Amino acid sequence: MGVAIPLTMIAASALIRPSVPEQGKRAVYESGEVPTGNTRIRFNIQYYMVALLFVVFDIETVLIFPWTVIYRDAVTQFGLARALLPMLGFIGVLVVGLAWAWRNGAVRWVRSEHVPGQTAD
Amino acid sequence: MPDGPAFEFLAALIASSVIAAALLGLVAVSGIWGKRKITAAFTDRIAVNRHGPFGLLIIVADAVRLLSKELIVPEGVDRPAWDIAPIVMAGSALLGFAVIPMGNGLHIADPEVGLAYVFAVASIASVGLVMAGYSSNNKYSLLGGLRAVAQNLAYEIPLILTAASVVIFAGTLRMSGIVEAQATTLFSVAGIGIPSWYAFVNPFAFVLFMAANLAEVGRNPFDIPEAPTEIVGGWQTEYSSVYFVLCYLSEFIHIFLGGAIIATIFLGGPAGPVLPGVVWFVIKMGAVYLFTQWARSAVPRVRIDQLIEIGWKGMLVLSIANLVLTAVIVGITV
User: Fold this and answer.
1) Contact B153, A51 (CB under 8 A)
2) How many CB atoms sit inside 10 A of residue B36's CB?
3) Do B153 and A17 touch (CB under 8 A)?
4) Is the pLDDT of residue B178 over 70?
5) How far is CA A118 from CA A40, A49, A112, B150, in A?
6) Is residue A65 part of a domain?
7) Taking a C-beta distance cutoff of 8 angstroms, is the pair B263, B269 a contact?
8) How far is B297 from chain A (nearest CA, A)?
9) Where along chain B do its domains lie?
């Protein structure tokens, strides 16, 4: 259903819309200027380190979810210490990792070194 | 009544069609008409009032107008990716509604991993954003697509960790189970019972989730992937005609999906007095929608470097603290 609805809309639109090909109509939009170059270039992804961190934390959330589901039962069955402490240790390791990345400047917008006087973006 | 897999499949198809149609109607009303009226109210204008009562017929007029526009394919676009991106975005948001309990039995599927499924499906839209941004061969689109990634990276984890703190209370990922767990009375004030909705049980998580959700659906103060005053239309700059409709629609369905998730895991789902469940569910979803539109009109945009700082140094730390504190409190009181 999620794919069928967009496809139906595209088909319906194809039936009623006009097609008037014209010179210059297909130029990419660059605020009215004649476009220069294309976008298939090497681009400085300034949050590269953050993206790497994301992978770590995303896997962490996947590992936390099963624990949250059984947590209440585990506390009644095995007591607070055995249910909580291992996960505190696990999250603790991640927090230490985050603090380390923070101190080393990984969690920030990396500024380009080539452009003087540049602020952000 | 006949049964068997063929009948079940047919029934599921009809049910999902009904829900999808109702949903698209709601999105059309809120997206085309409601948004303009709300924004107009914030900026002291009247907005649409010519077509039909309160200008409501603008919905039909706009839909026909946009669908009958010429589809301009810009030079140098990466063709399959450029075509698939709007379908991916709209489809992923619609899929999320499959596991949302809307009350009065309107609930297509109730898998055991409901909550995880919703987040997984909603995240697919990020792939669509990157595809749209990169394949458009437009500088604004490229910037918008990359910004969308940065934003989703920064706010996905606080969002999911905050939801995990709710799961600690409920003890299940099943959506109906989470709603049931909120049905008990928390305490009574002057004879009126306050239900134990997780927004009341854990208001801190609720606020955190609302903020992260704003970033997830890309509304102010976190609307940098589009940022109309900076990068034109962001990743959707080059889309026209029906593709633009799909991009626009998918954004609004996403806001509603966010509202539906918040209503389900924090506001007791379809629970409420007097009115039937579906009405309460739509009211709660509408309230979240109103909040996003309010933020859109009233809150300034943050810069992208600020966004990463807020996400990674503020909200991630807060969400981990929230999770640990919730676990400790639940562990002691259980």
Assistant:
1) yes
2) 16
3) no
4) yes
5) 23, 20, 8, 20
6) yes
7) yes
8) 24
9) 1-68, 73-333
| Residue A80, domain member (yes or no) | yes
Of the partner residues A10, A20, A26, the one whose CB lies closest to the CB of residue B75: A26
Question: What digits encode the pLDDT tens for the residues A25-66?
Answer: 777 777 777 777 677 777 766 677 777 888 888 888 888 888
Query: What is the signed CA dihedral for B299, B301, B307, B310, rounded to 10 degrees?
Result: -20
> Tokens for B166?
């709710």
pLDDT in tens, B11-30: 777 877 777 777 777 777 77
Residue A10 with chain B: CB contacts under 8 Å: 87, 242-243, 246
Asked whether B104 and A52 are in contact (CB, 8 A), the reply is no
Mean of the per-residue pLDDT values for chain B?
A: 81
Q: Which chain B residues touch A80 with a CB distance below 8 Å?
A: 331-332
**CA B27/CA B161 separation, integer angstroms:** 28
CA distances from B30 to B53, B219, B263 (A): 15, 15, 17
Please check the confidence at residue A117 and state whether its pLDDT lies above 60. Answer: no
- Name residue B188's beta-bridge partners: B193
**Domain range for A67:** 50-103
d(CA B254, CA B171): 26
CA-closest candidate to residue B256, choices B228, B220, B217: B217
**Interface contact flag, A9 B173, Cβ < 8 Å:** no
Kind plus residue range of the DSSP H or E element containing B309: helix B304-309
| A10 contacts B242? CB cut-off 8 A | yes
CA distance B271 to B279: 10
B41 vs chain A: nearest CA distance in angstroms? 30
Residue A25 included in any domain: no
Cα separation, B27 vs B14, whole angstroms? 20
Q: How far apart are CA B11 and CA B31, in angstroms?
A: 29
Say what the pTM is: 0.83
* Structural domain count of chain A: 1
Q: Is residue A12 part of a domain?
A: no
For residue B211 the two structure tokens come to: 């903020």
Please provide the DSSP assignment of B144-193 as one string. Answer: HHHHHHHHHHHHHHHHHHHHHHHHHHH----HHHHHHHT-SEEEEETTEE
CA distance B294 to B35: 10
Report ipTM for this prediction.
0.75
User: Could you please report the per-residue DSSP string of B197-239?
Assistant: -HHHH-HHHHHHHHHHHHHHHT-TTS-TTT-HHHHTTGGGTT-
Range in A100-104, B227-231, B263-267 the model is least confident about: B227-231
